[in-house]
Amino acid sequence: MMALCLKQVFNKDKTFRPRKKFEPGTQRFELYKKAQASLKSGLDLKAVVQLPPGESINDWIAVHVVDFFNRINLIYGTMSEYCTEKSCPIMSGGLKYEYRWQDDSKYKKPTKLSAPQYMCMLMDWIEMLINNEDIFPTRIGVPFPKQFQQVCTKILTRLFRVFVHVYIHHFDSIINMGAEAHVNTCYKHFYYFIREFSLIDHRELEPLVRMPQGWEV
């Protein structure tokens, strides 16, 4: 139900990047279908994120990292007209939190960027990683690298910052779009998942400990 609602609320033509898809017939595709079926069934989100019996934790994490990338990409892509160089000259989460960009190529030191610049760099960087067969292998029998969960922690930590920025700086726009309930559900799903597998340092979660819309996770 949530996936359907998201499609109705958000404009798929405004996604930042093409959606990453799972190949039919693969184990990852079957896991993705299982996860989506659980979501649509209305099960408690805390139960939905739990590892299904007999499944590989790395496959489960890989499926969710790609799915969260797709959904957060969709949310921000639709919000991007409200997030401009003028309105958001610094990538931040209120006055207390500022996020600087660093990678292994262009920005070797933490660099202050506008929110739109940061988002572009982030989506490019994640897309590069999830399409890298050495990190996210799709072929049967090819193992995940030893640093796989470490890479996923970094991806999810940076995706969490998108929620921080959108909630703190663009929540009025979310309400005006009628998207509040859907963004909240996506965030709760993300939050329960990263807490279930301890994938983000708790200090990163501090900006949204008290949600602006009045509920706490």
UniProtKB/TrEMBL annotation:
It comes from the Eukaryota. GO terms for molecular function: kinase activity. It holds the Pfam family Mob1_phocein. SMART domains: Mob1_phocein (SM01388). Keywords: Kinase, Metal-binding, Transferase, Zinc. Zn(2+) binds at C83, C88, H165, H170. This is MOB3C kinase.
